[in-house]
Amino acid sequence: MVSENEVKHIGELADIGIDGEELVAFTHQFNVILEYFDILDRVSGEPAVASDLINVMRDDIVEPSLPRDAVLRNAGGQEDGFIKAPRVM
Amino acid sequence: MGYHEIRFEPDDRYNAFLTTCTRASHGDGRLAGVAVAVKDNISTQGIETTCASKILKGYVPPYDAHAVGLLKQAGAAIVGKTNMDEFGMGTTTENSAFGPTLNPSDTGRVPGGSSGGSAAAIAAGMVPLALGTDTGGSIRCPAAFCGIVGLKPTYGRVSRYGLIAYANSLEQIGPMGKTVSDVSSLMQVIAGYDRRDSTSRERPYAHTPSKEIKGLRIGIPEEYFGPGVDPGVTRVVRAAIGRLEELGATTKSCAIPSMDYALAAYYVTCTCEASSNLARFDGVRYGPAAETKKSWHDAYQDVRRAGFGLEVRRRIMLGTFALSSGYYGKYYAKAQVARENVKKDFAKIFSGVDVIAGPTMPTIAFRLGEKSDPLPMYLSDILTVPANLAGIPAISVPCGRSEGMPVGLQIMGRPFEDERVIDVAYAYEQAVN
User: Which pTM value belongs to this model?
Assistant: First the structure.
């Protein structure tokens, strides 16, 4: 069982924003779903290292990209050709 | 290349479209002038693309998805963007921020999801072809519920470049249409290698459907006809498989033991991937703007609470939880082992049969509002998620009705044998029409 406090903590980690009323409903649904996920306890072993797959990289050379105007057009805030973000300090 | 234009003013009484292009331009090519609808999580340059989410309201992509670019090169007219469950998260199209799509066969019922708008637009005759995306059944489910044809291609066969990611290890763009031939011709256009998708494979599709299936070996998994499957659906699908036998195919019962936990593995995997993929929606680069005067945690929480619907927030949180310290081993790591087991089960079955057949969905289309709790909704994906976990091709083709509603026959094949599942669906379709 997960508690309301744990769900609140997860909400903060995910920057999802939960208020009090929602927290009760989310916690209940979480527990119903996680109880179903317990069926995975029947699965034994560790994930195998994929042997039939390879990483696909391109050469590290500069290639044409989208024009700055086109990229900035969808941003909420911009200044001097940069995207404006909330303050982090 | 010639430049032409078609007018597109459909009577959209089912809310199939989020955006329509009244005047749609097109060039020459094998799809010259054919109206094609595109699911709203596939980027279209200059046409608003929202994933049916408020958090992308007003977003106009500066580039085309690879599949959309190929459609344009083939002369198709992109006539609009279709409704869906927000970011592809749902089985009914009720999780759209812009209202549900209705099922053209019965407007009191859902069209299935998440590509419900694309399926309804085809079923209602508004367009002959559409693109959908399938993460856990999102092409096949609405195809079954609306009575049209939908193919989830082998993973890697169609580029995901420009598909707004939800669960990228599972999802594929795929063709939807009224007939198997339509779906096959759309697949010819969109399949092939693209260097901008690092999971893309050099496996173009140049097939013309053949109805010759004499000697074909069909596996019938007992799990696809279990107690959770509606008896009416079972009856219709068994009759359809009988028809394939009359055409010269043989059937053999088989088992997929990993079905016990495949659905749980699917939901752990897709929610974990969603929690990572959807972290980018914070109101900085696109969508409604974040308040830059606030601290970033507060600003992001405000945008994400207001912009994401309930199901999206639930899945992001479930995924964040399943990946968090102390729980990773219990959920994500186990889900990946389970996924390997699903692949192994399929490989074993496919060593003795050519395709696997069963129902696409365990029931007919739900009534609007019928599935209000998350878990019962998730459980309805049980027959479609195995193909996504294994990356194999799977098609849904209409095979009759139960209680007046369409039922889909699902055919799954070996990796990169999309041609074969197309042929089996075509053989069935030609025999009954």
Answer: 0.97
